[in-house]
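Re: weekly structure request thread

Next one in the queue (214 aa):
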Amino acid sequence: MSQKETIALSLEKREVLGKSVKHLRKQGLVPAVIHDHGKDSHVVMGDYNQIYKAYLSAGKHHPIEINVGKTKFTALIKVVEFNPKHNTLSHVVFNAVDANQTVDAEVPVHIVGDSPAVKTGLLVIHMLDHVEVEAVPSLLPDELTVDGTKLVEIGDKLTVADIVVPEGVIITTELEHTIAVVEETKAQESEEAAEAEEAAEAGSATEAKPETKE
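Done, posted below.
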C-alpha cells in the first residue's frame, strides 16, 4: 500500500452502551470508541464490513481519516477485539493523532530475499512479526523489512537491529529481539541422534573385543 493512500471511514455516534451492544452486532454494526488527546472519548459505531476492511488495510500503523457527522479525526487503530467463537470483529479502539506529533504504532516486519538455509533443507523459525515504532503519522511505514539472505547456517538469526529503518522512524522494540533463527528439522535431529548412537555402540564394541593371543 502506498504510504500516501488515504483510508477513510464513516462512523456514527452511539447511544447504546454496556451489554446492550450485542444487539448492534446482530444488526451488522461494530461498537467502537475514539480516544481524543486527553479529551472526552467519542463513543461510536459503524458498519461491520467497512470497519473490517479499514482494519485489514490500515492494521495498527496506517492513519485512518474518520468522519463522525461533521467532526473529522485522523486516528490509528489501537485495540481490536474479536469474538473467539466466531472470529468476528467485536470492538475497536481508535486513538486520534496529531499530524505534527510523534505517535507509537505497531508495524509488521517481513523477511525479504531467499534464505540459503531454507534451500539446504534447514528450518527458519519466525519469532517476531511486528515491532513498535515512533514517528509522525505521515512517516509511519506500512511495513519494515529485514534481509533473509543472511540466514545460512544453523544458529544464524535476524534481530530487530537488522531491520532497514526509514528516515524519521525510530524503533522502540529492543534491538536484541530475535525476528527469525535457523534450526535443524526434527528429521535432521533424529538422524544425527541415530548416527551418534551408532558411533557410540561401535566404540563400545571395539573396547569390549578381547585381545587375540598369538
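The mean pLDDT is 88. The chain has two domains: 7-97, 105-185.
Next request, please.
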